[in-house]
Amino acid sequence: MHDTNTRENADVAPARQVADVVAERIERLIVDGVLKAGQSLPSERRLVEKLGVSRTALREGLKLLRARGIIETSHGRGSYVASLTGHTETSPLMHLLGSQPRTLYDLFEVRGMLEAESARLAALRGTPADHVLITRRYQEMIEAQETEADPSVHARLDHAFHLAICEASHNPVLVHTLQSLTDLLLSSVFASVNNLYHREQHKRVIDRQHARLYNAVIGKLPEQARKAAADHIDRVCASLREIEQEEQRLVRATLRLEGWS
Fold this sequence. Notes:
single chain; mainly alpha; Arc Repressor Mutant, subunit A; Four Helix Bundle (Hemerythrin (Met), subunit A); 11 helices; 76% helix; disordered N terminus
């Protein structure tokens, strides 16, 4: 009886270990950004082939990931990567940050720090595949400027370009930190695009800075890429402050004209 139990335990242990390995390898794909939040997992057959494990071990590994809240499964859709950051935009802090205009400049400070470093790392570590993706996002952004009038579209394409550079840094923590701020960052990009892109002088400066950043990253020039990203954020922030002061002067002059002073 004892020998039978021992054999059973020996059979169970390796299967459990293989399931852990399966879970860890899929987690690595998620951390590295190969599988993104909301994206469906490949079919069981493809995962079995790619990971070199049995169907049973694969299913056990997926069960572990479901228990950790890393993947979800729904009828008709199969398994997909869960939202890893949760609904942060609904938290009181996210509401406060999003509702106060002064935090726009705080966000630009954060963008400046994160994006300058991610641009430097992207120039150092970017692969040919990264360059293809960055070029695609850059071209989409440029084409939209010629054909698309909606500022929100420009904002999303602008953000996608910067995110593609960040992903080329191959630093998953940096990427996930930026992604967790997506909604707040989009609001800052939208503010800059909405206020600056219809002003021809500012638009030309932004276009030149995007081109400088793109060329430095693709050209594998880390210090130039870092400086281009930092200068871009600084310039956008300074331009917005100029516009804000201009509008305040306009309001004050109008009030004086109407006899409020």
